[in-house]
Structures are given as structure tokens and as C-alpha cells.
Amino acid sequence: MRVLSKFLAAGLLLALAACVSSPPAVQEVTRHQELTPAYALSPDAADGLVPQPSATVPPHRPGEPVRPEVVEQEWLGTRWGEEIRSPIRFVSLARLRPDRPEVRVTIRYDGRRSAAMGPVSTVRRLAVADGIVEFSVLGAGGRPMQLTPTSGGDLRLQGRSGDLYRLAFTNQGRRTVEIVATVDGLDVLNGRPGTIANRGYVVSPGERLVIEGFRKSEDEVAAFRFSAPDQAYAANTPQGDPRNIGVIGVALFTLDDPANEVVAVSPRPFPADAPRDPRFAPPPTP
Fold first, then answer.
1. How does pLDDT run across 80-98, given as a tens digit for each residue?
2. Do the beta carbons of residue 181 and residue 16 sit within 8 Å?
3. Is pLDDT at 50 greater than 80 in this prediction?
4. Residues 168, 196 contacting (CB under 8 angstroms)
5. Taking a C-beta distance cutoff of 8 angstroms, is the pair 232, 99 a contact?
6. How many angstroms from the chain centroid is the CA of residue 136?
7. Secondary structure (DSSP) of 8-71
8. Closest by alpha carbon to 75, among 284, 245, 248?
9. How far apart (Å, rounded) are the C-alpha atoms in residues 170 and 122?
């Protein structure tokens, strides 16, 4: 019991490793360990990032046949997409520095083309203790999308309404890493406003993590799909704020030696009567 209690004191971690055969791990959190949000990964209102729907269509010239045109959305959000199977499991791990992420990355996205402010790449190498974590955004067909540096030090991503995307991480270091991620200011695990006090996904050395959507349960996620701002998940849930639409946040923490202790889940005799699990994101409001 002493060992188990020690592990339970670590907090909540979710692990989703696409390249391992066993389900990834997550740990339970006791009520007294819920932390007061320190600061959010999402931008505040002072950023001036207030997306508004805007589309451009080439003009139709008299005498030409009317053809359907591709409409490019200037501002984009991320909607609650189709269901994707994505099982997880709980583990007990603690951060070496609970309140200090080793890396923080902000990715601004929309549908506009713009000139590059620095070297364009598809993979970003993020330096953490004893190694590197490679980060990329995967688009159609699993191809990495271009990430462009901005003058403010963030990264910029050009998307297209309706397209699916995923966040991919490869741990090339020697320590287990925790990844906390937000999309449009909402935590991808519980659907609440993003904060580094939330716990995240676990990536062991040599493993790859692909975050495919907002987590609905221990077995499924709702896919990330670019959309018009008014269709974004953040615009259709009470936890969201339209001023944060168009941004992805990532924070990386180094973890103590992995325990990989699986926490058993109690079986439910009447699962349909059980309340929604507050650890995961609720569906958008109709």
C-alpha cells in the first residue's frame, strides 16, 4: 500500500504511444492534488487574435460558365471531428520541475499565405533534459506540414478548412517526457481552459506520440479538423473562448524515472448510468 500511495501522489498522466503494442498509460489524481492554474498556454485577449470568418472567391466574369470554386477560409478554428479509436492507460509519474516546463511552443494557424520570417521546416527539434523531442504537425496522408517562424518567436501553420491534422512527437532523448497540449485554448484531454497545471501525455525514450484529437474517453478521441471559427469546438462549448481560436499550445516536462504502474479501473455494472468522466472533453453543445 505504501508504494501505491506514493505513485498516486504523482498526478494525472496520459500516455498514447502509437508505436507500442500495449495500451498507453495514465494515472489517477486524488482530489486534494488538483492544482490552481498557474498560467494558460492559450493567448490572452491582449494578443488581438480575434478570428472572424472571412472567405475569398475569385470573381465571376460575364459569359463564363459558373463553376464551383475553392473557398479558402482566412481565419480557422478546430472543430470536434469524427471518432477515432485511441486507447490509453494510467501510469504514476512525477515531474522533476512541476511548475516549470522545459519547452513551450505556440503555433498560430489560419488559412492565409504569408512570407516566411525565418527558415521554414516541417520538423522542430525541441531541446529537453538529456535529449531532443522532435515535433511536427501531420496533415493529409500523414505528411508533415510546414512550420514557419514569426517575428514574435511563435510558429505559424497554414491550414485549410475541412482538413484533418495531428500533433506528432518523437522522444529521441534518454528521459521520459510529459506533453501538455491545448488547441484553441482548450486542453486536449479534459476540454477545459489550458494550463500547465494540467497533466498530459507520456512519451518514453525512443517512442512516438501522435495526438489525434480531443479526448472523449479512455478509448476514443474526436479528430482535429480545421474549420470556420463558428464551427470550432471552442465556439461551441461553455469552456471555450472565441478569442483563443487559431492557436495551438505545447509544453514539455521531464519526468522522474518511469514507474509504468497500471492503475486498475473498477468495472461498472451499469455503465450507461455513470456520469460523464470529468477528466475528458465533453462533446460540443448542439
1. 999 999 999 988 899 999 9
2. no
3. no
4. no
5. no
6. 12
7. HTT---EE-BTT-SSPP-B----GGGPPPP---SS--GGG-------EE-PPPPTTSPP---PP
8. 245
9. 13
Candidates 80, 43, 103; CA nearest to 188 is 80
| Distance between CA atoms of residues 253 and 104, nearest Å | 9
Question: C-alpha cell of 186?
Answer: 482548450
| Burial class of residue 244 in the structure, from the number of CB atoms within 10 Å of its CB (0-12 exposed, 13-18 middle, 19+ buried) | buried
**Alpha-carbon gap, residue 39 to 278, rounded angstroms:** 21
Residue recorded with cell 470529468: 278
* Inter-CA distances, 216 with 125, 151, 284, Å: 29, 36, 11
Cell of 255: 519526468
**pLDDT for 71 beyond 80:** no
Alpha-carbon distance of 239 to 249, in angstroms, equals 16
Residue in 97, 177, 108 with CA at minimum distance from that of residue 148? 108
Supply 274's cell numbers: 455513470
Cell numbers representing residue 166 in the block: 495531428
* Rounded distance between C-alpha atoms, residue 268 and residue 276, angstroms: 13
- Residue recorded with cell 491545448: 182
The tens digit of pLDDT for each residue in 138-184 reads 998 899 999 999 888 899 999 999 999 999 999 999 899 999 999 99
A 10 A CB-CB count for 222 gives 23
Under 8 Å between Cβ of 169 and 176: no
